[in-house]
Design goal:
mainly beta; Immunoglobulin-like; 6 domains; six-stranded mixed sheet; five-stranded mixed sheet; about 55% strand
């Protein structure tokens, strides 16, 4: 920046006047130009919640250092004089900040700039009770504003598409009917129009259902019985973190937290093993589900019937008997009894015996007896089954024109067939559950010749079958 200085001198003579102008020109040229001073400043941050700390930094070029600084923070407080400088705004509002910088030259230069506007929001706090829970969930809120000019007004938005709730009430309650994660927010406005907002998450969920499955590689055997267990569980979106396992082996031993433990049973007996899986939901509440397995440690020797299962029902056909035999020796044979009558034996696993059940009707009690190489015997628990078959009571009529034979009995079902000496009748018609007719003209006569006894049976579509009866026309 250049400067010019002027003096008023009255000269009368031309030569003297000319010399003076020359001198003044040389004097002005000899005065150095003063440097121009440029000032910029920044503020970090420019907005936030009260109390808000803002750091101001000035950058100065030109002029003569050192510089002096005068920061006017716009809030009526004491000015700042350092660079950089940090100032705390304790009241919500909008503040215009100005800076004046003065250098240290003989003729000081001074520059004032507007740094910018600092926006300070009301401090808002929000609380919710409860903040997390099962649907439907009733939540009571509490909100407060601070560092503004009272009185305050409140505007609640519960985040579930319910209308915004304008009120001066600080503690409204709201019901959440559906599951989800909601953001409830509160906007507080003071008497000067300054605002502030705060929010809080609300978690609404249903009971975190998950399934637990416990399995074992063996559930029956002689002591000492070594069992390998394995546990698993399904997932749940409301469970946070890892699931915890606890195995109770049912024999009074210490529980185990492993997913796949091994356990040895030394004493005969039946043990109920319980797997409990626990997970913590997103609200911190723990949920547990269980599964159980029965482990049977058998006496030596032991036998169990595996077919048929007790309480089962069947219709005729073949009755299959099978057993599981356990012995420290060798199985010699397994004998089977029905209603205490011996019906047959088997010598190799699975110790199967197949019987013809046609014609049997009623409830039957079945058990097996094991004989081993050590001279020991063991009898299985009894199983009870029900067998249902059709019956032919021996009553019949031979009808002519057309030729047909009518039989009487019980348990006849649609689609049943009549057999003569094991050969199916040309036509069988079921008239009711008690009456069935064989038709077929000459072909039927050939199956039941005049004066010749033949064996007649009936077989339903489900495989149930009658005991044979003798027929002669």
């Amino acid at each position: 920046m250049s400067h010019k200085f002027f003096w008023e001198v009255n000269l009368t003579k031309g030569i003297q006047k000319g010399l003076l102008f020359l001198f003044l020109a040389l004097f002005v040229a000899a005065i150095p130009a003063l440097a121009q001073m440029n000032v910029t400043a920044t503020a970090v941050p420019t907005s936030g919640t009260a109390p808000l700390d803002v750091t101001f930094t000035a950058t100065v070029t030109g002029g003569t250092s050192p510089y002096t600084y005068d920061w006017d923070f716009g809030d009526g407080t004491t000015h700042g004089t350092t660079n950089p400088v940090t100032h705390t705004y304790n009241l919500a509002g909008k503040y215009t900040v100005r800076l004046t910088v003065t250098d240290s030259s003989a003729t000081p230069l001074s520059t004032t700039i507007t740094v910018g506007t600092i926006t300070v929001n009301i401090a808002v706090t929000v609380e919710a009770d409860p903040q997390c829970g099962l649907a439907p969930l009733n939540v009571c809120f509490h909100g407060e504003g601070a560092y503004g000019v009272e009185p305050y007004s409140y505007k609640w938005n519960f985040g579930d598409n319910a209308p915004a709730y304008n009120t001066t009430e600080q503690n409204p309650c709201h019901g959440y009917m559906n599951t989800g994660v909601y953001t409830a927010s509160l906007t507080v406005t003071d008497s000067k129009g300054n605002t502030g907002t705060a929010s809080i998450p609300i978690v609404v969920y249903t009971e975190p259902l998950f399934t637990v499955t416990a399995t074992a590689d063996v559930t029956l055997g002689l002591a000492p019985l070594r069992v390998n267990f394995f546990g698993s569980h399904s997932t749940s979106s409301f469970i946070s973190g890892a699931f915890e396992y606890e195995w109770d082996f049912g024999d009074g031993s210490q529980t185990c937290p492993d997913v796949a433990p091994q356990h040895i049973y030394s004493t005969p007996g039946t043990y109920t093993v319980t797997l409990t899986v626990t997970g913590q939901d997103i609200c911190g509440q723990q949920w547990s589900h269980t599964d159980t397995i029965d482990i049977t440690v058998a006496e030596d020797p032991t036998i169990f019937m595996t077919k048929p299962s007790t309480g089962s029902s069947m219709s005729g056909g073949q009755l299959v008997l099978e057993s599981l035999a356990l012995t420290s020796g060798t199985v010699v044979r397994v004998d089977y009894y029905i209603n205490d009558t011996y019906v047959g034996s088997a010598t190799t696993a699975p110790y199967r015996l197949t019987l013809d059940a046609c014609g049997a009707n009623g409830t039957y009690t079945i058990y097996a007896i094991l004989y081993d190489s050590k001279g020991h015997t063991a009898q299985s628990p009894s199983v009870s089954i029900t067998i249902s078959n059709p019956t032919l009571d021996g009553t019949n009529y031979v009808l002519k024109n057309p030729f047909r034979i009518k039989f009487f009995g019980t348990g006849f079902k649609p689609g049943a067939k009549l057999y003569f000496n094991g050969i199916e009748a040309p036509i069988t018609k079921v008239l009711s559950s008690n009456i069935i007719v064989a038709k077929g003209g000459p072909a039927l006569k050939a199956l039941a010749p005049q004066g010749v006894p033949v064996i007649v049976t009936i077989v339903n579509k489900d495989g149930s079958c009658s005991a044979p009866v003798t027929f002669q026309r």
